[in-house]
Design goal:
heterodimer; A: 298 residues; mainly alpha; elongated; disordered C terminus; B: 12 helices
Chain lengths: 298, 320
């Protein structure tokens, strides 16, 4: 709303924006743990991008002569049953985790947000149809829904992405539905209508930007749950095909050799936990920095 | 209140019908012919099978009829307590589930009790002793609890308590009626795994809503009257802080069912979670349909109860 006033009056625009950004930065970086999460995420993204430079060994090529080696200078985290370097597989696994997380968040959020805004804005029969469809997905635990869809579509990372996207649509729709319901009651929406703006323009230019802060927080939090769910699915054997590296599948592979070499199972699990933790922390930080209810208190 | 309950019941019924439609049609529209997959697993020599035999089997299982007819047949069976036969186990789905559902339910109820008791008390303690050692222990643990992959926690515990310390059996399930001691020992680790997420998220929610409530004027009044801490916290602050936590408990049931899929796999527990995973790999449609239906009904029912008790705890909600 402040932005709209500023556009009308003109001269107010620059200063408030600057202080908004300052305030955001101050609040976001004020907690050390958020900063820690941010550092982990940046490291993760860099690891995924430069995986082929960082990995000391080929993560896929079996080398039977060095099967199930303990930690050593050469193999920092040891090797698995096929003699593949655990650290290298861990590094490549970050690609799987990030790809599944970001693509699923992208697909689910676009579908979920559009559905939620339409339901809230149009109301009536549109609202009923969309929200009943979402209610129908709600009683299924996310991992069960994803498991069924991915399992029946057949393996492969594409199907895991499709399954997780479908399973995570409801939260976006619910959040944006509620936001759209309250935002559309504002006078500036009425003003836009009377000026002849189309429904599409109002939804995209006025409701969506105002609903953005909670959505961005939700997306960050969902990235964490998606990586956790993908790990769960690949642990059960659904998802990436064998020589490919996925952290959940690595935990399961290592489980068989828990006595001989527990690091095989421990290391990828720790990686999953760190990354999910980082996404949650950054989400928390964003919420504190963006949530208007906390403004004034901070 | 009655109108509110009736409205909620009707809504639940509509969703239930939609859920059966979704389960049935999603299962049939996905690729893969259940019969062919079944035959392939049975004989490995599908090409040797004369087409007439396949057609006859298809007819036997009713798979040659149009989809709406199959749906009507399945649904009327559901109401009569007949979920069809498993292609893979050659048993009725109800019979398969009758052995396994009590296992999952027993584990799930224990996990739910732990979630509620441990989650609420630790969150409350952390709020009341904010900044003290209890809070400094509980709050970081809740962060770990919501991020740790449950299957990994299970493996970690198996390694430490099972293999290294030899304190607990590493896997399996025994009925508590057969050997209560062994059954309880075997269940300690699975229950921790299944409840950890719920405990942590309840504790977090309880802590923050309690912190909000104890700032209110009526709490200050209670203190000013000279009431003892126990009375202020349990009688005045607790009920109001519980409202947001109750919603989480409804969601907790969903998490417990979801977790059971992973936990039962890690600990080799013969419940419906593990059956579901196996049936998905076997493309055993009717079993998958039956299990998802049971899970969905359970989650819907719990949420119905939660919604109604929510309206009772906070009368404002009924008019919302």
């Amino acid at each position: 709303m402040a932005k709209d006033n500023a556009t009308i009056t003109g001269f107010l625009e620059a200063p408030p924006r600057l202080s908004e950004w300052h305030r955001f930065r101050r609040v976001f970086f004020s907690r050390k743990i958020v900063l820690f999460g941010m550092v982990i995420l940046v490291a993760l993204v860099l690891t995924a991008i430069f995986a082929n430079w960082l990995a000391p060994f080929d993560p896929y090529k079996p080398d039977m002569s060095s099967s199930l080696q303990q930690l050593s200078k050469e193999h920092l985290l040891g090797t698995d049953i096929f003699g593949r370097d655990t650290l290298s597989r861990l590094i490549y696994g970050s690609r799987t985790a990030l790809a599944v997380g970001f693509i699923s968040v992208g697909i689910a959020s676009v579908i979920g947000i559009l559905a939620g805004i339409m339901a809230g804005y149009f109301g009536g029969i549109t609202d009923i149809i969309i929200m009943r469809a979402i209610d129908t997905l709600m009683p299924f635990p996310m991992i069960v829904l994803a498991l069924i869809v991915a399992g029946l579509l057949g393996g492969g990372i594409h199907n895991v992405i499709i399954a997780l996207s479908i399973a995570t649509i409801p939260p976006y729709t619910r959040v944006t539905h509620g936001l759209a319901l309250s935002i559309k009651e504002n006078d500036y929406i009425l003003a836009q209508r009377s000026m002849g703006s189309s429904h599409l323009r109002i939804m995209m230019k006025h409701i969506l930007p105002n609903a953005f802060p909670p959505i961005i927080v939700l997306m960050t939090m969902m990235l964490g749950s998606l990586i956790l769910a993908e790990a769960g699915l690949s642990f059960l054997g659904i998802g990436i095909e064998p020589p490919g590296a996925a952290w959940g599948a690595m935990v399961n592979d290592g489980y068989k050799y828990l006595q001989e070499n527990p690091v095989l199972s421990f290391a990828p699990g720790l990686a999953i936990m760190l990354v999910v933790f980082a996404f949650n922390m950054v989400g928390d930080g964003l919420r504190d920095a963006l949530d208007p209810r906390l403004r004034g208190l901070l | 209140m009655t109108a509110f309950i009736i409205r909620r019941l009707l809504h639940g019924l509509v969703v239930l019908v939609l859920v059966t439609l979704l389960i049935f049609f999603a299962m049939r529209l996905l690729p893969g012919d259940p019969l062919l997959i079944y035959m392939a697993q049975k004989s490995q020599r599908l090409q040797d099978m004369p087409p007439q035999v396949i057609e006859q089997l298809r007819h036997e299982y009713g798979l040659d009829k149009p989809l709406p007819v199959q749906y009507a047949k399945w649904l009327s069976g559901v109401f009569r307590g007949d979920l069809g036969d498993s292609f893979f186990y050659r048993l009725s789905v109800v019979k398969l589930m009758r052995e396994r559902f009590p296992v999952t339910a027993y584990l799930g109820i224990l996990a739910l009790i732990v979630t509620i008791i441990v989650g609420i008390t630790s969150g409350m303690l952390a709020a009341v002793r904010r900044g003290k050692w209890v809070d400094n222990v509980v709050t970081p643990l809740t962060y770990i609890g919501v991020t740790i992959p449950v299957f990994w926690l299970g493996i970690l515990m198996i390694y430490v308590f099972g293999l290294k310390l030899n304190l607990l059996p590493i896997a399996g399930f025994t009925s508590p009626f057969v050997d209560f001691g062994l059954s309880t020992k075997q269940l300690i680790m699975p229950v921790i795994c299944e409840s950890i997420f719920g405990v942590a998220s309840n504790a977090r929610q309880m802590r923050s809503s309690m912190l909000e409530v104890i700032r209110q004027d009526y709490i200050r009044t209670a203190w000013a009257k000279g009431l003892r801490e126990r009375v202020v916290i349990f009688k005045h602050a607790m009920k109001n802080s519980l409202i947001p936590v109750i919603t989480l408990i409804g969601m907790g049931v969903s998490f417990i069912f979801g977790g059971s899929v992973l936990v039962e796999t890690v600990f080799a527990i013969p419940g419906i979670g593990r059956l579901l995973v196996a049936s998905i790999f076997n493309h055993d449609y009717l079993v998958v349909q039956g299990i998802t239906l049971i899970i969905a009904i359970a989650v819907l029912l719990i949420n119905l109860i939660v919604d109604i008790s929510y309206g009772w705890l906070d009368p404002r909600i009924r008019y919302g």
